[in-house]
């Protein structure tokens, strides 16, 4: 049995691991264990706050603790972070000035994060994944499913934009034009934690692999473990 720890940016990614990755790999004897980034600890109240990445330094603490689980050849660690609004202290961010290709940007960041953490660990057991450009990119893989869930809203502008851009992973990460911002402009009631995941369950991993190149490469790595 392979154990794969997935360090997640927030609850949405945790739900994705539980409700999409786990069922998809159920026949491959692989167990996925989502770990949410710890962002704050209140020792006086005995509370821990998880989710969100205001700084990579906070995420790194969670990553380091998770990497401590790499004690045998059947255990692996990956991540699920959005490229959109990735903290400026993320390893490799200072090297992207002259990189224009989005795929090369995330490849650079993933390699830098992995090198930053690898130290004495087996290199192949740890492979960070960064989602281009954010979680909502997935919903553009099949806008019919989004339309079914929010049938009382007009998503014509989303369809027109997808025809133009073609690739959901290349929808830019502008403050007003990122995938989530585009969806919210058409569907103010959009809820990614609940409805977003339900829509993705209908879209399915296979469809996401077809239209999202970088995501497909990550799934292939997981399949080959």
Description of the molecule:
The radius of gyration is 18 Å and the shape is globular. The strands form two sheets. Strands 1, 2, 5, 6 and 7 form a five-stranded parallel sheet that branches. Helix content is 44%, strand content 16%. Helix 8 crosses helix 9 (213-224). With 225 residues, it is of the alpha/beta class.
Entry keywords:
single chain, 225 residues, alpha/beta, five-stranded parallel β-sheet, 7 strands, 16% strand
- Shape verdict: globular
Rg over alpha carbons:
18 Å
Order of helices and strands: EHEEEHEHEEHHHHHH
Q: Strand count, sense and closure of the main sheet?
A: 5 strands, parallel
Q: What separation lies between the terminal Cα atoms?
A: 11 Å
Could you tell me the mean pLDDT?
A: 89
Proportion of strand residues: 15-25%
Contiguous uncertain segments of 5+ residues: 40-51
Helix content: 40-55%
What structural class do you assign from the helix and strand content? alpha/beta
Q: Helix segment count? A: 9
DSSP summary, beta strand count: 7
Give the SSE layout.
Layout (H helix, E strand, L loop, with lengths): L1 E7 L2 H14 L5 E7 L1 E5 L4 E4 L5 H12 L7 E8 L19 H17 L7 E2 L2 E2 L11 H7 L6 H10 L13 H8 L5 H12 L1 H7 L1 H12 L1
Parallel strand pairs: 1-2, 1-5, 5-6, 5-7
Antiparallel strand pairs: 3-4
Helix pairs in contact: 1-7, 8-9
């Amino acid at each position: 049995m392979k154990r794969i720890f997935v360090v997640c940016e927030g609850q949405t990614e945790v739900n994705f691991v539980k409700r999409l990755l786990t069922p998809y790999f159920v026949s491959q004897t692989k167990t996925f264990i989502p770990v949410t980034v710890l962002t704050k600890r209140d020792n006086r109240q005995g509370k821990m706050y998880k989710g969100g990445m205001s700084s990579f330094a906070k995420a790194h603490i969670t990553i380091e603790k998770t990497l401590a689980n790499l004690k045998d050849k059947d255990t692996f660690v990956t991540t699920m972070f959005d490229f959109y609004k990735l903290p400026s202290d993320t390893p490799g961010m200072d090297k992207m000035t002259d990189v224009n290709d989005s795929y090369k940007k995330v490849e650079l960041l993933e390699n830098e994060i992995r090198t930053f953490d690898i130290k004495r660990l087996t290199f192949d057991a740890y492979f960070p994944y960064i989602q281009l450009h954010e979680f909502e990119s997935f919903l553009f893989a099949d806008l019919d499913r989004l339309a079914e869930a929010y049938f009382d809203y007009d998503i014509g502008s989303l369809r027109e934009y997808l025809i133009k851009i073609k690739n959901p992973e290349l929808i830019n990460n502008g403050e007003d034009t990122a995938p989530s911002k585009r969806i919210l402009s058409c569907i103010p009631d959009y809820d990614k934690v609940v409805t977003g995941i339900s829509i993705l369950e209908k879209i399915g991993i296979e469809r996401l692999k077809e239209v999202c190149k970088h995501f497909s490469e990550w799934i292939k790595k997981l399949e080959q473990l």
